[in-house]
Write a structure and sequence with these properties.
about 250 residues; 7 strands; globular
Amino acid sequence: MRTLGVDLAAATRKTAAAVLEWTEGGARLVHLSLDVTDEEIVELFGSSDLTGVDCPLGWPDALLPFLAGHLEFDPHPVLDHDGIAGRRLLAYRDTDRFVTGATGLIPLSVSADRLAHPAMRCAVIQAKIAQDYGPQARDGSGRLAEVYPAASLKLWGIRARGYKGRGTAEAERLGVILGSLTAVAPWLDLAGYRDALEASDDMFDAVIASLTARAVSLRQTLMPPDDHAAAALSEGWIHVPSGPLAGLTGTG
């Protein structure tokens, strides 16, 4: 099987894609690119069995009635979110709160942070995928899943902090983290891309997204419990690993 990982930015620049080809016992990095367009993402999606995208697939369910109430001068849905607790329901999705409880990490808000810009692009890409391949469920039950590389690395036991950026210290840290990944996963063949990965945190995150997509395909991620299932379908669901990296090398 083939898994695609996408580290999605608001624009083509700094958007990265990585494709892993899986055979029994291992995986090989067969495609790695930076500054990836919408059209390239859709094309790679079409040739992959499962895609993991590091970007929210939806917005909080509470946000639309709040905005509609404000637009229509209807105070009731707006006043439902009076106070900090109410505004948190507008800022964070059900899956965001679940992931925080499971990992201790706090995902960025899709509606109250700069993450909103990539999410808008992601919505357009989802529509383009739907045109060519049909709509994809936002809970990850189709061929598209939302992933969170920082959470994946943490749950796989890889210390990964301080590697975001273009400075010398960040590059050195990224090299150490990549070394930790290959030590834990000696079955992962980077196929000559190691130098490129050490030079780009975006491409590195795309590889982690592709690894997590494999975990989704094997049902080795935390799935939405029954009381989260409805929200996952509309808001999206962040898939984080429920097993070790070595578990990804099963029959594919």
